[in-house]
Predict the 3D structure of the following.
Amino acid sequence: MFKILKKEEWSPSVFAMEIEAPRVAKKAQAGQFIVLRVDEKGERIPLTIADFNRETGAVLIVFQVIGASTMKLAELNVGDSIVDFVGPLGQPSEIEKLGTVVVVGGGIGVAPTYPIARAMKEAGNKVIAIMGAKTKDILIMEEEMKAVTDEVVVTTDDGSYGIKGFVTNAVQALVDRGEKIDQITAIGPVIMMKSVADATRDLGIRTIVSLNPIMVDGTGMCGGCRVQVGDETKFACVDGPEFDGHLVDFKGLMSRQRMYRDLEAQEKDHVCNIGLDR
Ligand SMILES: Cc1cc2nc3c(=O)[nH]c(=O)nc-3n(C[C@H](O)[C@H](O)[C@H](O)COP(=O)(O)OP(=O)(O)OC[C@H]3O[C@@H](n4cnc5c(N)ncnc54)[C@H](O)[C@@H]3O)c2cc1C
Ligand code: FES
């Protein structure tokens, strides 16, 4: 069993939890994820490792409540435990000194960019973080990000904070001011990662994206997470989740994500109707 050490609500429907998982914390690296199960009957869901502390053995996850499993997880409190917390899984981010690195996080995608930004800074890069949110109220981790980067640029869709517009506008603004960007890592909704990759293709900026296809076993056995990257079929759980954004078949990824929508809606209704005691 894995105990919840800390729980905070960072914005409506976004929760941060520290889980006691010393073996995961010991090996975790930026870019990796865990697969957890809330209880014996629960589904396995993948969540990115947003932070880890090798001394205390705590692993931070930040999640948005969107369906049955995340709803059940959000109902738990400090002192409660979850049955499975498996990881670290996936390939770590490639961390090296490149020059100027930009991390772009959209919505909940800001959380997984945080350990990457920190590791890139520690490797000697100039790091700029672009953080996008629909509105100011749901922006997360601004102070944490400021502490590990050289500059933070915030965009909000409604202009309630920072630059009004999308993260792609902020990327363009950096280019316009003469910033020589050596690499961008973009994490967030698929449509956002696609837009960033489309924008940077012509600019010739290497762009890494972290994909979130449906995952079942998380170990490369079931094929559920397969994605087309250039001429190759890759399994996001073992080959990724990070890939070259200019080679990813985003259209295929989006259509596979829609495959289970009806079943997921039924399960969410089920949990809402019978409560969490099952
Ligand atoms: C590598 C990876 C890292 C992720 N990291 C985070 C994170 O840090 N924070 C966060 O909030 N979310 C993250 N996600 C997405 C998260 O796994 C889903 O939100 C979660 O599984 C939803 O489960 P649910 O039962 O609450 O919702 P459901 O109603 O079951 O699903 C809602 C939507 O979530 C996605 N989803 C559902 N099941 C899975 C699954 N097994 N694998 C992948 N996606 C699924 C689908 O897009 C689906 O339409 C990550 C996904 C992947 C693949
Ligand atoms: S989740 Fe089964 S192969 Fe990746």
